[in-house]
């Protein structure tokens, strides 16, 4: 089962300890074959909305920067519970904030 784990930005500035802990966590998940992809996302982006034959493109999909998704990890695990546990471990490393875990369907 694949799950997309996303996190929203916070005001906390990363430090060397955070970088070291996240590096170790990412290495562990990569070595276990669980981590398929990870990365940070630009705060802006573009939004496309379609209605009939018309497609409107506007700057930024979010009204406020705090609503944006700051980063993601795509994992392949045996269960939703395992994905939630990985997200819990992530939150313990990075501290206060918000993450979302969603199952990815399809091939």
UniProtKB/TrEMBL annotation:
SUPFAM superfamilies in the record: Dimeric alpha+beta barrel
Superkingdom of the source species: Bacteria
Domain (YCII-related): residue spans on this chain: 1-90
InterPro entries for the chain: Dimeric_a/b-barrel, YCII
Family from the record: Belongs to the YciI family.
Protein name: YCII-related domain-containing protein
Organism: Kitasatospora arboriphila
């Amino acid at each position: 089962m694949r799950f997309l784990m996303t996190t929203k930005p916070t005001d906390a500035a990363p430090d060397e300890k955070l970088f070291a802990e996240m590096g170790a966590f990412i290495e562990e998940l990569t070595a276990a074959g669980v981590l398929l992809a990870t990365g940070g996302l630009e705060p802006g982006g573009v939004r496309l909305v379609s209605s009939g034959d018309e497609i409107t493109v506007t700057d930024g999909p979010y009204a406020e920067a705090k609503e944006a998704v700051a980063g993601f990890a795509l994992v392949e695990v045996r269960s939703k519970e395992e994905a939630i546990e990985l997200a819990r471990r992530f939150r313990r490393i990075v501290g206060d904030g918000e993450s979302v875990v969603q199952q990815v369907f399809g091939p």
